[in-house]
């Protein structure tokens, strides 16, 4: 299992998260810039991606736990089958956060997202604070989210890669 985890970067090392405009499952226009002022977990995923299916329940939990603190999960589906593939999965998985349909243009803006899942933690100022490529421990996400909600200028704790399988419930 290939993973690349990153702790929260110091504020002066962060770069702006590229804005985009995509549609959600109701056809509403969603812009990343609409989330300015919130900590955002931007997750590129697909229904056929096994590691994505492991992470999604964590993201459902994070959305519930942290939304009142100015946090939001925004999923970007990279499914080629579009909403016909995605909507049934969202119902089955009881996804409680917003999902938009991605495209190659948005993936390119984020550095040619080549592996799924790939997640970006974006601070309240719209800057990318950390990037997670592949399946990483739930604790890595949680500590990064909490660091950003608490101010986010400090680097987070080092990755604990040995817990990947334990956190994944295997």
What is the topology?
Blueprint: E1 15-16, E2 21-23, E3 29-31, E4 39-45, H1 50-66, E5 71-77, H2 83-93, E6 98-101, H3 104-109, E7 118-122, E8 127-133, H4 138-149, H5 164-167
Parallel strand pairs: 4-5, 5-6
Antiparallel strand pairs: 1-8, 2-3, 4-7, 7-8
Supply database-style keywords.
alpha/beta; 8 strands; two-stranded antiparallel sheet; 170 residues; Glutaredoxin; disordered N terminus; 5 helices; 6-stranded mixed sheet
Molecular structure report:
The chain is of the alpha/beta class and 170 residues long. It has a single domain, classed as Glutaredoxin (3-Layer(aba) Sandwich). 29% of the residues lie in helices and 22% in strands. The chain contains 5 helices and 8 strands; from the N terminus they run ββββαβαβαββαα. The strands form 2 sheets. A 6-stranded mixed sheet has the order 1-8-7-4-5-6, with helices on one face. The chain has a two-stranded antiparallel sheet with strand order 2-3. The longest helix is centred in the middle third of the chain and has 17 residues. The protein is globular and about 40 Å long. The N terminus and C terminus are likely disordered.
In short:
With 170 residues, this protein is an alpha/beta fold.
**Uncertain residue segments:** 1-5, 152-170
Structural class: alpha/beta
At CATH level 2, the architecture is 3-Layer(aba) Sandwich
Q: Domains counted in the coordinates: how many?
A: 1
Query: In which order are the strands of the major sheet placed?
Result: 1-8-7-4-5-6
Query: How do the helices and strands follow one another from N- to C-terminus?
Result: EEEEHEHEHEEHH
Give the overall pLDDT as a whole number. Answer: 87
The amount of helix comes to 25-40%
- Biggest β-sheet description: 6 strands, mixed
State the shape. globular
């Amino acid at each position: 299992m290939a993973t690349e985890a990153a702790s929260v970067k110091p504020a002066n090392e962060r770069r702006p998260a590229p804005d985009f405009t995509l549609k959600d499952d109701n056809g509403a226009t969603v812009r990343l810039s609409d989330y300015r002022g919130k900590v955002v977990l931007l997750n590129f995923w697909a229904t056929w991606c096994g590691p994505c299916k492991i992470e999604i329940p964590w993201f459902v939990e994070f959305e519930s736990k942290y939304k009142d603190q100015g946090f939001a999960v925004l999923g970007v589906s990279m499914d080629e089958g579009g909403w016909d593939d995605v909507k049934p999965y969202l119902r089955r998985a009881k996804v409680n956060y917003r999902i938009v349909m991605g495209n190659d243009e948005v993936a390119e803006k984020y550095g040619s997202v080549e592996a799924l899942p790939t997640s970006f933690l974006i601070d309240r100022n719209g800057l990318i604070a950390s990037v997670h490529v592949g399946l990483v421990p739930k604790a890595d996400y949680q500590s990064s989210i909490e660091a950003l909600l608490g101010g986010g200028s400090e680097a987070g704790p080092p990755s604990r890669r040995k817990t990947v399988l334990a956190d994944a419930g295997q």
